[in-house]
Every structure is written in structure tokens, then in C-alpha cells.
Amino acid sequence: MRTEFYQGIKPGIVCFVTLLTISLMVCVSAIAQSEGDSLDYIAIVNDEKITVEDFNRNVEMIKNRYAELGYVPEGSQLDELKQNVLNNLVEKELLFQESKSNGIEIDSTAIDTEFETIKNSFPSESEFENKLRETGYTVDFLRNEIHANLAIQQLLEMQIGSKADVSEEEIKTFYDSNRENYGSPEGIRARHILIEAGSGGKEKIESIQKEIKAGGDFQKLAKDHSACPSGQNGGDLGFFSRGQMVEPFEIAAFDLEIGEVSEIVETPFGYHLIKLEDRRPEELRSFDDVKDNIKQELRRLNVASQIEPYIASLKQKYTIEINRPDAK
Fold first, then answer.
1. Does a structural domain hold residue 136?
2. Torsion sign, CA atoms 208, 212, 215, 218
3. Best label site of 98, 115, 174, 258, fewest CB within 10 Å?
4. Whole-angstrom Cα distance, residue 327 to residue 224?
5. Residue 235 to residue 260: CA distance in whole angstroms
6. C-beta neighbour count of 66 within 10 angstroms
7. Which structural domain, as residue segments, surrounds residue 47?
8. Domain count for the chain
């Protein structure tokens, strides 16, 4: 099962198969462990070993990612990052083992489909193969990661997602409390002519105003005289809403009727004449238009709030042995 539902939820757990992509390489936050490990494994979860090789493979990818950003964690930050890697790998193993305990099986066709999706996200097969080499992955390893990821997704859907119901009342309450997120504000489209303040500026704008009142073409006058770059487009500023222009300009522009030209307006930029071209009323998307999106988001948040307690319960159920001295 491949779904958008779990995107962003506990990414260190459910994003493992897509560690090849740059956007999800931050799912495991860590820097590589030193080369002098005396053990071949870093932790054991119910008799399943998490190898040092697997640990280092993950942290090397993140090390490369941080290097691209020009950042090298040190001291306590480095310790914390290493701990995050270990925690993520342990939690992933817990969830994968629990999926097997629940009888979850992944069809090879689903693995094939996911594998092709990842491969096709690269411009070419050679770039995909290069990325595999860079990250230390093999095709078999990647397919195993896909298998685990899909099994974990099914487990989370079975144990949490299927029970995370959201009522119509909850959706409506959220909509009513967040209406500002589902609408577009009132907007207007205007043209203007700007003459910079200074010697002769006031007289020049007054002269242009007289021409307009005598029937002069606003767009042509803007093209010929406006100090604003919009003058090349006849002074057209496009649509804008309240709060986007300096206050004197905004007040004058929003007070106009369509086709009307303002009196001279002074701002820190100079003197303006404004012509209102169009007005777009405030619009609110209807509840029916957005309720499915709201339901998905509330369901996602509901599941996210239950992930940590669920993992904590698995930690009580399974035996976990940490073999790295500085890990807890």
C-alpha cells in the first residue's frame, strides 16, 4: 500500500525506502560512527541484529547531505545525531517485526511497483545506479527496504489509521475556526502613474492630471512619464489585496470605482495618480469543497499523535539490547 497518508508522520520510521532521494535523506538525522567499532552490530531487537554496517550506511548518506549544506556537527550535536540514527533504526525494526507478528505480507508486485517509482524519479537509469553506488545500496538491499516500508505502512494503517476516525462535526468546527485559510481576500487591479518628488515633481503630476481630466489616455501617459517600472505596461500593477501597498496608496485605490482616477496621492515614493481597472470580491471556498482535505489533515494529525505511544508499547513488548557504549 502506497499512500500520501503517512507522509510527514514519524519520517525516520516510514521513509526508509526513499533514502535515495535528496528530499528524504534527512529522514535519519546523524553523522557516521567511527571506524573502530569492535562489534559487528549496534543493537539487537528480539534477536534481530542491527549491524554497524547498516548504521554506517545510513549515517554516511546524512554526512554527505550535511556536507552539501556546509554543516559539520560536533560535540553534543554529533552525539545527538548518532543517537537519532540508532533510535530510528531500532524503531523501524520494532515496527517491521510487529508487522510480521500481525501476519502482514507484501506482494512482490507491490515491491516491484515501488521500486520502479523510485527508479523513475531519476532522469536516467545510469543516474539511479550512480546514486545506489554513492549511498552504498544494492538493488536487493533497496528492495528489502521497500518491503519493510510497505509492511510498516500497512501495520500503522491497521493499528492506528483505521481507528483514527474524524467526525463531520470535527471537520466543520475546524473549517469554521480557520476560515482565513480557505479564502482569497478582496483584490483590485489598478494602474498608476508615479512622478518622483523633488524639483518640479508636483507641477508635473498636476499637469498630467489635467491631461487625464481632458480625456488623455492613462496608459499612454503612464508609459511616457511614470517613474515606476510598471509604466512600460501602461502602469498596470495587476491584482493586489489590502496590506500589499503603502497605506496612502492603498486607501485611495480601494476607495475608487472601476474606471475612476484618483486625486493626486503622495507617498514616500513620490506623487501618484491611480486608475482602478477591476475589483475582485473576497471569496471563501465552500465547506463541501475543502472538507475532504480537512478530514485527511485531521486524520493525519490524529495518527501522528498516536505514533509515539504505539512505539513505546512495542518497546515494552520486545527485548531491545543496545551494544554501543554511549547509546541509551
1. yes
2. positive
3. 258
4. 72
5. 15
6. 18
7. 4-168+289-322
8. 2
